[in-house]
TrEMBL record:
It comes from Hymenobacter perfusus. GO terms for molecular function: geranylgeranyl diphosphate synthase activity; squalene synthase [NAD(P)H] activity. Pfam families: SQS_PSY (PF00494). SUPFAM superfamilies: Terpenoid synthases (SSF48576). This is Phytoene/squalene synthase family protein.
Length: 280
């Protein structure tokens, strides 16, 4: 038995378990991708999930020190092609296999580091944070889906960024209360938590709608093996967005809007049948 391959396979299985434990919706989306994309995308999710956990969860510890060590281990793994941290080992393997850009990783780690400090976001920081925390994750996945086709990646790059941006802004709306109460953050530039009004909410929603439209234009051009999985993520977030739009600002500040698991399954089935009948 090749024990190096066994270690890599086990590391990939760890990333898959992390995805299944942390995100029902993301797991459903991955399952609708072609089988060859499952483990690589699990590896990307495991990496971004672990980084996010450091900055958002371990409040009783020195999160800056934990993150600095995680960052050091990440670059070491990328340099030598090995990590004893299974999440980082699985991730570096995918980075090497699919040629994922180092700039995407740099931008992601920078955005996660921004979350270590309570801060107000101006437009420039807001855009930089969204790029690093969400858009580059979509671009990492797009590298996987394009399987070395650079022209196809370049063509779909902007729609992929816009789709990731839409998803992140919806997360910001959904989590505006917990982000403020638990972490002292309001990501939307110039928005004060106590002055979050219906008018402010409508302005943010108009921005999200524009991102959604640009992102959908890219989904229909994705390689067929990836299209249904990304479309399912789009449908899920669109459902969440519609629920948020129907509520006044005061309700958004008072409760966390969710899409129940049974609704997620219905969205999955509906997306699948539409895909089969309409051939997105």
């Amino acid at each position: 038995m090749d024990h190096v391959q066994l270690f890599t396979d086990t590391s990939r299985a760890c990333a898959k378990l992390i995805t299944q434990r942390y995100s029902t919706s993301f797991t459903l989306g991955i399952r609708t991708l072609d089988q060859r994309f499952h483990l690589p995308v699990y590896a990307v999710y495991g990496f971004v999930r672990w980084a996010d956990e450091i900055v958002d969860t371990f409040h009783a510890h020195d999160k800056a020190a934990l993150f600095a060590d995680f960052k050091r281990q990440t670059y070491e793994a990328l340099e030598i092609g090995l990590s004893l941290n299974p999440v980082l080992h699985a991730f570096q393997d995918v980075v090497r296999q699919y040629g994922i850009d180092r700039e995407f990783i740099d931008a992601f780690l920078f955005s996660m580091e921004m979350d270590l400090d309570d801060r107000s976001y101006n437009q420039s920081l807001y855009e930089r944070y969204i790029y690093g925390s969400a858009e580059v994750v979509g671009l990492m996945c797009l590298r996987i889906f394009c399987e070395g086709d650079t022209a196809q990646f370049d063509h779909l790059r902007e729609p992929a960024r816009r789709l990731g941006s839409a998803f992140q802004k919806i997360n910001f709306l959904r989590d505006i209360r917990s982000d403020y109460e638990e972490r002292g953050r309001v990501y939307f530039p110039g928005v004060q938590y106590e002055q979050f009004t219906d008018e402010v909410k409508r302005t943010i929603e108009a921005d999200i709608r524009a991102d959604f439209e640009a992102g959908y234009a890219g989904i229909v051009q994705l390689p067929r093996a990836a299209r249904l999985g990304v479309y399912l993520a789009y449908v899920y977030y669109l459902k969440l967005f519609h629920k948020i739009r129907q509520l006044p600002a005061r309700r958004i500040l008072g409760e966390r809007v969710r899409v129940p698991n049974n609704t997620k399954l219905l969205l999955l089935m509906g997306s699948y049948f539409r895909y089969r009948l309409v051939r997105l």
